[in-house]
């Protein structure tokens, strides 16, 4: 059985990946719910910032 | 009878040594089940949603689910990573019988999502095992 596919942009796929992996990271080894939420937000923002930073560094290669 | 809060994870000296491996196996088979048995509700939900979400988004992106009989070393590594997601691997194998959609980049993203699902669940297995051994909280 085939499943109807979806198509995400590169940025959309990266955001989805960052969100889900950040949740998993936050669930590992953090004591309280508040600490987990803070850590998940930090991981998500770091994913985003590093991805945008790498994209910016690679921009000259695309020309 | 269900164990009381944290009773499986406390290192009281009377803990059955078979419990931590069983918790690890349960956590591998169903993401989050190990934490559920240890009564870590939020972590159980988090690992289930993260691992399951990655697997299902990977499937929807038409990613490749690696089989065990791949002769390619990268295929073997992909199989091991995919296998980490436990029951989601079996679901993906049964639902998606066709190969990955390589005509679009999203198919390749899907392959990475599915592999990440397994790796995330391995992280959950290690965490649940550590809690059951009393080395984590």
Compact summary:
With 63 residues, chain A is an all-alpha fold.
Plain-language structure description:
The complex is a heterodimer of chains A (63) and B (137). Chain A is mainly α and 63 residues long. Chain A has helices spanning 10-27, 33-58. Chain A has one domain (12-62). Helix content of chain A is 70%, strand content 0%. Chain B is mainly alpha-helical and 137 residues long. Chain B has one domain (19-133). Chain B has six helices and no strands. Chain B is elongated and about 55 Å long. Chain A binds chain B through residues 1-8, 10, 13, 16-17, 20-21, 23-29, 31, 33, 36, and chain B through 35, 42-43, 46-47, 49-51, 53-54, 57, 59-62, 95-98, 101, 104-107, 109, 112-113, 116, 120, 123-124, 126-127, 136-137.
Structural topology:
The complex is a heterodimer of chains A (63) and B (137).
Chain A: H1 10-27, H2 33-58
Chain B: H1 19-29, H2 33-37, H3 41-60, H4 73-83, H5 87-95, H6 105-133
Helix pairs in contact in B: 1-6, 3-6, 4-6
The total beta strand count of chain A reads: 0
Q: How far do the termini of chain B sit from each other?
A: 23 Å
- State the helicity of chain A in percent bands: 55-70%
> Largest sheet of chain B at a glance?
none
Query: For the residues shown, what is the average pLDDT of chain A?
Result: 88
Order of helices and strands of chain B: HHHHHH
Q: Radius of gyration of chain A from the CA trace?
A: 15 Å
Oligomer: heterodimer
- Tally of individual helices of chain B: 6
